[in-house]
Automatic annotation (TrEMBL):
The keyword Transmembrane applies. Keywords: Membrane, Transmembrane, Transmembrane helix. The keyword Cell cycle does not apply. This is Type II secretion system protein J (GspJ). The chain crosses the membrane at residues 21-45. Pfam families: N_methyl. It comes from Bradyrhizobium ottawaense. InterPro entries: N_methyl_site, Pilin-like.
Length: 208
């Protein structure tokens, strides 16, 4: 009888041990599932935060570049090559060439011939500074090219004002061989990434 009782007690202990092990296993699996969920959620939040930071940084860089381009356009001068020719301002829908004045910060001080256009997927700025050579003639040094923006799909310029004194003011797709600068220049830049697109920038030019 005692031996049977011992066997029963031992069997109960083994069943209790097996039951406890099973409970522990279930608890461990439940905790693991919770931790996995937290980890996956944390990684997802981290990816979203990284993407948001990168997107914000990209927008800041884009806005700064467009602001620099607008400042260049605003520096346009009503310079004529000869008294009988129009001003040195050749505005097309896809490009813009003009004489601008540098304050001597990023560029050497003085007038520069500036060309804005798209080359491939880049918005480039070509800068040439006219300088007299030994004979007194204007020497044209190699242009300095700056890639202002990348990932550009299209650019469009338009111009507001009177191309001649008798004309009516209005927006035009081209402005060249005119007697005066346009009053306003609009620049619209479309990017491959539509999230970078912004409304057209309107720049006022100095008159006279």
């Amino acid at each position: 009888m005692r031996q049977n009782r011992r066997w029963k007690l031992a069997a109960r202990r083994r069943r209790a041990e097996r039951g406890l092990t099973l409970i522990e296993l279930l608890l461990a699996l439940a905790i693991l599932a919770v931790l996995t969920g937290f980890l996956a959620g944390g990684l997802s939040i981290g990816r979203r935060a990284f993407g948001a930071d990168r997107s914000s940084e990209m927008r800041g860089e884009t806005d700064a570049a467009i602001e620099a381009i607008a400042s260049l356009i605003a520096s346009a001068l009503p310079v004529s090559a000869t008294p009988k020719s129009g001003i040195e301002f050749d505005g097309r829908q896809m490009s813009l060439t003009f004489v601008g004045l540098s304050e001597g910060r990023a560029l050497r001080g003085g007038p520069h011939l500036i060309v804005l256009r798209r080359t491939g997927g880049d918005f480039v700025v070509d800068v040439v500074r006219s300088a007299p050579d030994a004979a007194g003639a204007a020497a044209v040094p190699p242009p300095t090219r700056v890639v202002a923006l990348s990932g550009v799909r299209d650019i469009r310029f338009s111009y507001f004002g009177r191309m001649n004194p008798s004309g009516a003011p209005g927006w035009q797709a081209q402005w060249f061989r005119a007697e005066r600068l346009p009053e306003l220049v609009s620049i619209q830049i479309d990017f491959d990434d539509p999230l970078r697109n912004e409304p057209a920038r309107i720049i006022a030019l100095r008159q006279g």
